[in-house]
């Protein structure tokens, strides 16, 4: 997650390129370079990386008190929420250390000032809960192989893994790294990740681009002993290294799936897999290659289904010839193998005064890239920006553009049908109260779905008379509310206009964002008195006082859905009488599959 991605694109460095047949020609496909206008997407991941290494994003310093750390985090989340962000990728293990209470690894020096020093609290539950309160997914970001940011082992905490197993590590370019060729290293890293998945309510596990180290002049990876001992298949050194990374990726994927099936696993590889002049399946680029330079075969992870999403770091502009954003966007869209593709975008590039890629000096570049992403609506499912601090700083007023335009309307997270395609049950007891302008909706969670999942969030839609309703139009989403494990839920629409008739729909989302059919209620804005309306009757459901707020006595008010269909009669004393007549399926019932 650094300028390395941009720097390496300026050269054609490639270590041990893969052998390919000269008779095979690279596949060519039209590349979209001008964004195609489209309606705002209803489902789109909009994320930021929150880097903790070297205190890049949070916490800002190593000497903050727990209360100062909490305040900083809340301020950061609030700013990201205002920009339209709905997912955070928080670095919880930057260098074999922890931003959570761990029996396996020491506290991070970036949190407490000294590695191993107890910061006085466990931040991770707070970090997760506050993200969830704001409707954001929380992906725990691990750097799997970096063990230290320097090679001064005397400063490592007594419980750092190096103290017990120095044979697991190798030194490279001033850093201490785990040796990916050792099975015991892969097992240990997997155990660290499963420990977090088991004990904390994370939505995803995330790796960045650091696998084998980025090449440095006159530096050699000293893994010849492991190569001699563990190369049972007689592979070349390059293929053996790729196999080591592949085995870790597969192992972590399977372990997460076994522990909690709803937790996602994704990786943000270097933006170029291979150049087409060195591999027939590569992209039309001339840049550093993750496949040969880092031994990271992202295309194979996707092909095998070992990741739920891939998030390539495309930190170049649309005009950068060596590795054009548009060219790589098209390549990744063709090579995602039915897994989610999000795009890592370099918001930090607009803060640089680079001469190698001057397009970043234009405030139009990042919005142009988001629009290009949306030109592939069935292939590209969102964006993640590096890094959180860059987004908050509003470089070239780009964050304003996101907030006021591209991310103006809320978006649900994309579903993952290969993990779960069963929607939750619809909400129950949906009731509406209007005593003037604002409208209050209350409801109860529905029972567990066939797969045992319950609602984890709710979506509130609003439609005024004369509006053309569509379940795919996020402009009608008023709110996405976390479930909060309550017996009843409530939402107050303070933007409802007095005297205007509305239809409200409430749907439930499960942990993987499958959406239920809607429960629906209507109201007639009137100066005559309060309005009470309720959705479908549930005679067997237990009474819930929170779901039926009291209203003042008055003349009967008849709330009608469509001509000939009487929904509710509210009589003096707040008695609710249901009257059903024969009716056809409504527009929304057909659309939502009800």
How would you describe the overall organization of this protein?
The protein is of the alpha/beta class and 594 residues long. Helices cover 23% and strands 20% of the residues. It is built from 15 helices and 23 strands. The protein has helices spanning 4-8, 66-82, 109-112, 123-133, 161-164, 183-199, 224-230, 237-259, 290-293, 298-304, 325-334, 365-374, 388-392, 398-406, 587-592, and strands spanning 45-50, 87-93, 137-142, 146-148, 169-172, 175-178, 204-207, 264-267, 309-310, 313-314, 340-345, 382-385, 428-434, 439-444, 457-464, 477-482, 489-493, 502-509, 519-523, 531-534, 557-562, 565-571, 575-577. The strands form five sheets. The chain has an eight-stranded parallel β-barrel, surrounded by four helices. β10 (313-314), α11 and β11 (340-345) form a beta-alpha-beta unit. The longest helix has 23 residues, at 237-259. The model is unreliable at 9-27, 525-529 and 538-594 (pLDDT under 50).
In short:
The protein is an alpha/beta fold and about 600 residues long. It has helices spanning about 5-10, 65-80, 110, 125-135, 160-165, 185-200, 225-230, 235-260, 290-295, 300-305, 325-335, 365-375, 390, 400-405, 585-590, and strands at about 45-50, 85-95, 135-140, 145-150, 170, 175-180, 205, 265, 310, 315, 340-345, 380-385, 430-435, 440-445, 455-465, 475-480, 490-495, 500-510, 520-525, 530-535, 555-560, 565-570, 575.
């Amino acid at each position: 997650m650094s300028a390395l991605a941009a720097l390496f694109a300026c050269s054609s460095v490639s270590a041990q390129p893969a052998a390919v047949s000269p008779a095979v020609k690279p596949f060519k496909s039209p590349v979209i370079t001008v964004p195609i206008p489209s309606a705002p997407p209803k489902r789109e991941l909009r994320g930021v990386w929150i880097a903790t290494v070297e205190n890049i994003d949070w916490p800002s310093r190593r000497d903050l008190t727990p209360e100062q750390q909490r305040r900083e985090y809340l301020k950061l989340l609030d700013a990201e929420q205002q920009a339209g962000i709905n997912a955070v990728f928080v670095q919880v293990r930057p260098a074999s250390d922890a931003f959570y209470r761990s029996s396996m690894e020491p506290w991070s020096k970036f949190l407490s000032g000294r590695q191993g020093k107890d910061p006085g609290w466990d931040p991770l539950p707070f970090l997760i809960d506050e993200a969830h309160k704001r409707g954001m997914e929380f992906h725990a970001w691990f750097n799997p192989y970096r063990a230290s940011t320097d090679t001064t082992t005397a400063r490592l905490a007594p419980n750092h893994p190096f103290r017990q197993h120095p044979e697991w590590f190798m030194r490279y370019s001033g850093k201490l790294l785990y040796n990916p060729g050792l099975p015991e290293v892969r097992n240990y890293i997997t155990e660290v990740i499963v420990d977090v998945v088991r004990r904390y309510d994370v939505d995803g596990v995330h790796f960045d681009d650091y696998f084998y180290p980025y090449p440095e002049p006159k530096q050699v990876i000293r893994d010849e002993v492991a190569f001699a001992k563990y190369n049972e298949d007689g592979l070349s050194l390059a293929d053996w290294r790729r196999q080591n990374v592949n085995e870790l990726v597969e192992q972590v994927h399977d372990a997460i799936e076994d522990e909690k099936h709803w937790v996602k696993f994704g990786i943000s590889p270097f933006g170029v897999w291979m150049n087409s002049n060195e591999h027939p399946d590569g992209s039309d680029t001339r840049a550093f290659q993750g496949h040969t330079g880092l031994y990271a075969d992202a295309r194979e992870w996707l092909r095998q289904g070992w990741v739920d999403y891939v998030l390539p770091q495309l930190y170049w502009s649309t005009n950068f010839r060596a590795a054009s954003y548009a060219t790589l966007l098209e390549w990744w869209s063709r090579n995602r193998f039915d897994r989610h593709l999000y795009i890592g975008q370099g918001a930090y590039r607009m803060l640089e005064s680079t001469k190698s890629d001057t397009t970043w000096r234009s405030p139009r570049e990042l919005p142009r890239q988001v629009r290009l992403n949306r030109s592939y609506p069935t292939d590209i499912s969102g964006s993640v920006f590096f890094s959180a601090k860059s987004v908050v700083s509003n470089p070239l007023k780009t964050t304003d553009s996101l907030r006021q335009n591209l991310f103006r309307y809320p978006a649900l997270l994309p579903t993952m049908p290969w993990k779960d395609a069963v929607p939750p049950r619809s909400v129950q007891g949906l009731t509406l109260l209007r005593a003037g302008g604002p409208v209050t909706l209350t409801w109860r969670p529905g029972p567990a779905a066939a797969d045992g999942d319950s609602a984890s969030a709710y979506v509130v839609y609003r439609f005024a008379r004369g509006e053309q309703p569509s379940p795919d139009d996020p402009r009608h989403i008023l709110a996405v509310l976390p479930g909060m494990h309550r017996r009843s839920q409530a939402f107050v629409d303070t933007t409802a206009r007095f005297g205007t008739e509305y239809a409200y729909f409430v749907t439930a989302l499960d942990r993987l964002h499958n959406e239920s059919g809607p429960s629906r209620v209507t109201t007639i804005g009137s100066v005559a008195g309060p309005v009470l309306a309720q959705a479908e009757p549930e005679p067997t459901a237990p009474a819930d006082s929170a779901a039926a707020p009291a209203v003042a006595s008055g003349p009967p008010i008849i709330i009608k859905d469509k001509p000939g269909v009487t929904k509710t009669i509210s009589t003096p004393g707040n008695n609710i009488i249901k009257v059903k007549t024969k009716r056809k399926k409504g527009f929304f019932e057909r659309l939502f599959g009800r």
